[in-house]
Amino acid sequence: MKILTTLMYIFAVGTVTSSMAQTRSEIDLRTFLPSFASRLRLRLKDDSFFKDESARQAARERCEKHGGPFAFSNATAALEDFRNSLELIANDTIKSARLNFLQPLNDRDEFAKICSFSQTTNTLVNLLLESSKPCLTQKEQHSAGTLVNMTISTTNYICKNNGSRLLSFWRDHGVECAMKKSRAMENCNRVARPVHIPSDNHTAVDRFNLPWIVPSSYNVEICRRIDSFFTCVLEQLQSCEQPTTYKVASDFVNHYEETIGCKNLPKAKTSATA
Question: Environment class of residue 224 by beta-carbon count within 10 Å: exposed (0-12), middle (13-18) or buried (19+)?
Answer without folding.
Answer: buried
